[in-house]
Write a structure and sequence with these properties.
The complex is a heterodimer of chains A (211) and B (99). Chain A is of the alpha+beta class and 211 residues long. Helices cover 13% and strands 28% of the residues of chain A. In chain B, a hairpin with a 4-residue loop joins strand 3 and strand 4. Chain B starts with 8 loop residues before the first strand and ends with a strand. Classes of the chains: A alpha+beta (211), B alpha+beta (99).
Chain lengths: 211, 99
């Protein structure tokens, strides 16, 4: 068997020196290359064949659409992630959440020692990647929380008839206060308007637009 | 006393399930029954196109492959081919036949 670390000049007799052996013997002294196979994943192969059904996801934060919104496409549970896109296959409908690009959004981060809710700013990309409930300022320095459908609603100080202050978000139901709307983002990925437009006529988008 | 189990043998199905495309960098195999596409090197191609046209045990297939490539196999190669044949079977490229 060949020693890959051995040099021809290292204590090799002429009979063992490969340079002195006939070619056929040299070949038989070599290790045979291992046979190998690389299989195309069925989803990849099928999607490649149907490349027009792959909705390309944005790399980073794309430009807003003509309405000034970032477009967050929900990832359906039965859709495969194909490279940088969703292989939509024969699907004819996807849900898109419009996230206004000219608005600063916040996520709830906890309750401080004074019992006040704390928030930090969050990008549209994170909101879409993670999904969940988010907040934005409606003016006057006061933020309004936008709860999930059917969930609780309260302001940034956790005040809801005083019951929730200092106790975090409770699973209370109720009607939204004046000027507040629901705002939740379904987990998915940002896409450009151009990418979504390429499916015009073949795909229906169910829009979630929060005002 | 339990009789020893006969070694498994494999072969390619007899109904020409493969469509090949050959190039200097490798071989593309389209498997018609499954609709899957595979990329193979010379050794894997020879296994499917030459060595396994008749039922062979793993060792015999490995030795035949080494002979076709004019090289000497070692224990690691024999073990590798044995595992590869099981993988081929899982992919549906070859079938197990009774001894």
């Amino acid at each position: 068997m060949n020693d890959p670390d051995q040099r021809p000049s290292d204590s090799v007799s002429p009979d063992d020196d490969p340079a002195h052996r006939p070619p056929s013997a040299v070949r038989r002294g070599l290790l045979v290359a291992m046979p190998s196979i690389l299989s195309l994943h069925s989803g990849l192969a099928a999607a490649t064949a149907r490349s027009s059904n792959v909705l390309v996801l944005a790399d980073g934060i794309p430009d807003p659409d003509e309405n000034g919104n970032y477009l967050c496409v929900e990832k359906p549970h039965d859709v495969e992630r194909f490279g940088k896109g969703y292989d939509l296959g024969d699907r004819t409908e996807v849900e898109v959440t419009d996230i206004p690009a000219d608005r600063q959004h916040y996520k709830f981060t906890g309750v401080n020692e004074e019992g006040n809710h704390t928030y930090s700013s969050v990008s549209a990309k994170e909101m879409c990647d993670v999904g969940g409930d988010y907040y934005y300022d409606i003016g006057g320095g006061q933020s309004n929380r936008y709860s999930p459908l059917g969930g609780n609603r309260m302001n940034s100080r956790g005040n809801r008839d005083g019951r929730s202050q200092g106790r975090g978000i409770q699973g209370l139901s109720g009607e939204p206060t004046d000027g507040s709307k629901e705002f939740s983002v379904t987990k998915g990925a940002l896409v450009s308007a151009t990418a979504l437009a390429s499916f015009t006529g073949r795909l229906t988008t169910t829009a979630k637009t929060w005002l | 006393m339990t009789p020893p189990t006969a070694p498994r043998r494999w072969r390619v199905a007899s109904d020409s399930p493969f469509a090949w495309a050959h190039s200097d960098s490798g071989h593309v195999l389209y498997h018609r029954p499954s609709g899957q596409t595979h990329f193979l090197n010379d050794g894997a191609m020879l296994l499917l196109s030459r060595c396994l046209l008749e039922p062979r045990e793993a060792t015999a297939a490995a030795l035949e492959l080494a002979r076709l490539q004019n090289a000497e196999p070692d224990a690691r190669f024999l073990e590798h081919v044995s595992g590869l044949l099981r993988h081929f079977e899982n992919l549906g490229l070859i079938e197990s036949v009774a001894a």
